[in-house]
Fold:
Amino acid sequence: MTRVSVEEGEGFDSLLRRFNRKVQSDRVLSEVRRRRFFEKPSVIRKRKKAAKLRKSRRQTRRDQRSNLQ
Structure:
C-alpha cells in the first residue's frame, strides 16, 4: 500500500503529484493492469520466456557493439 503523509502547509496539488510519483515508482499501476484479467500459467511462462529472449538478444547486441569499438 502506497502512503504519502501530508506535510505542514502543503497544498493538495503538490500532495497529489507526490502520490502519483510514488505510485509510479512502486509500479502499482503496472501491477494492477497486469492482474486485471486472469492469465493462464502457460501464457505467463510464454511471456516470461519471450522477455528473457529479448533481454539476451539485447545483451548480445550490446556486447557486439563494445567489441567493435
About this structure: Helices lie at 12-25, 28-34, 41-68. The two ends are 46 Å apart (CA to CA). The mean pLDDT is 91. The longest helix spans residues 41-68.
